[in-house]
Design brief:
Elements (H helix, E strand, L loop, with lengths): L1 H13 L4 H6 L2 H8 L5 H12 L1 H4 L4 H14 L3 H8 L12 E5 L19 E9 L2 E8 L4 E5 L4 E2 L11 E9 L2 E8 L3 E6 L4 E2 L4 E2 L5 E9 L2 E8 L3 E6 L4 E2 L4 E2 L5 E9 L2 E8 L3 E6 L4 E2 L4 E2 L5 E9 L2 E8 L3 E6 L4 E2 L4 E2 L7 E7 L2 E8 L2 E6 L4 E8 L6 E4 L5 E5 L2 E6 L1
């Protein structure tokens, strides 16, 4: 009888190494087995399950599949992450996204290998090619700029330092064939970084009288410029060749300007901004003035802005604390269709991508990301669930999604 009991227990504990059991079984039953996990595979599975233990009780199986795949990647086990993503969930489609790698700075080094990420929260991410390879740049509460190789999933070189407070925003650009990042910080400065050397380029750009909330890049009359916004309710344009501001600050918002994107309409560079004053505004960067009337409709602060071309016409996508995503035709200055409603959060970020030349927006609020078909203005597939808040999104040139939030940097492939 003892042998039978031992065999039964062994069989039960071996279930911990079965991704289908971890995904589909009730959390209470799985958690009862964790303390007695035996063998490397079972101990790794137990460690992975514990990372988001508090979430598993309330999660559905499809949500648990996403969380476990993410947490396995945080432990450096890509093979386990892939097997979890491949698990079938009754009544649900196959997983649309897989996790290639993720940082795991809070993890203990008991099983596998976790990628150590920046300490503190990550507030901004942007992608760029360096030496022909896709990379991501991150900034956050640790005041440093980090460069990551998206293929290897490791940081490149040392963190770039100089800011004296947290980094809230960043953008990347290639200038004269060299990749650069431009960052904005709570220290009220804008800084430029040469990503080839890992050094700051030039002096800090000063002028904002408040935290800098957003950064974007634009080419004006053939020269690279940075556009920045902040809590001082202004939009500022900087010539990166001379390091000087271009004309006077652009004013019109009546509160903090939280979001920014740039585009070109009829050959003229424009900036689109969103703010705490619940408005979206369009600016001509050559004339240095607002274009048309403010775009209104959001019933709350506008947290995120992105630009996209749809059927040959320039559009803006905005997301706000009213839990809506809105599409605007920049030629007419009018909204397109009804607002898209999804996440429920007072914070939102947005990134653009394309599949078969069809435009999509990826939005996030709290710990949930959603994909929207901008042609139909409908959500595509199920939400993406994360175990921490999402503060930044970016899409690499090869379509991979970079998610930043808390102490996590996550790379996912569709």
């Amino acid at each position: 009888m003892a042998d039978d009991l031992h065999g039964e227990l062994s069989l039960r504990y071996e279930q911990l190494a079965d991704p289908a059991f971890l995904v589909n079984e009730r959390a209470g039953r799985v958690l009862r087995l964790l303390e007695s996990a035996a063998g490397p595979a079972e101990r790794l599975a137990a460690a992975v399950y514990r990372i988001s233990e508090n979430w598993h009780h309330e999660s559905t199986a499809w949500e648990r599949r996403q969380l476990l795949a993410l947490d396995a990647a945080r432990y450096g086990d890509r093979e386990l992450s892939a097997r979890i993503s491949a698990v079938s969930v009754e009544g649900e489609p196959a997983a649309q996204w897989g996790v290639e790698w993720a940082t795991g700075s809070r993890l203990e080094f008991r099983s596998g290998q976790a990628l150590i990420g920046p300490p503190g929260g990550i507030s901004a991410v942007a992608t760029v090619n360096v030496h022909g390879r896709p990379h991501v740049v991150t900034g956050g509460d640790d005041k440093s700029v980090w460069l990551w190789d998206l293929t290897e999933g490791h940081p490149v070189g040392k963190p770039m330092t100089g800011h004296t407070n947290g980094i809230r925003a960043l953008a990347t650009a290639v200038i004269d064939g060299r990749p650069y990042a431009v960052t904005g910080s709570d220290d009220k400065t804008v800084r430029t970084w040469d990503l080839t050397t890992g050094e700051q380029a030039g002096r800090p750009l000063t002028g904002h009288d408040g935290w800098i909330q957003a950064v974007a890049m634009a080419e004006i009359e053939g020269r690279p410029h940075a556009v920045t916004t902040g809590d001082d309710a202004t939009v500022r344009v900087w010539d990166l060749t001379t390091g000087r501001p271009m004309a006077k600050p652009l004013t019109g918002h009546t509160d903090s300007v939280l979001a920014l994107a740039t585009t070109v309409v009829d050959g003229r560079p424009l900036a689109v901004t969103g703010g705490d004053d619940e408005t979206v505004r369009v600016w001509d960067l050559i004339a240095g003035e607002q274009v048309g009337k403010p775009l209104t409709g959001h019933d709350g602060m506008v947290c995120a802005v992105a630009t996209v071309e749809i059927e040959g016409r320039p559009h803006a996508v905005t997301a706000g604390s009213d839990a809506t995503v809105r599409l605007w035709d920049l030629t007419t200055g009018r909204p397109v269709g009804k607002p898209m409603r999804g996440y429920d959060s007072v914070h939102a970020v947005v990134a653009m991508t394309a599949v078969d030349n069809r435009p999509y927006a990826i939005t996030a609020g709290s710990s949930v990301a959603e994909v929207w078909d901008l042609t139909t203005r409908k959500q595509v597939g199920r939400e993406l669930k994360f175990s921490s808040g999402i503060d930044a999104l970016a899409v690499a040139s090869d379509g991979r999604l970079v998610v930043g939030g808390g102490e996590l940097v996550v790379l996912a492939r569709r």
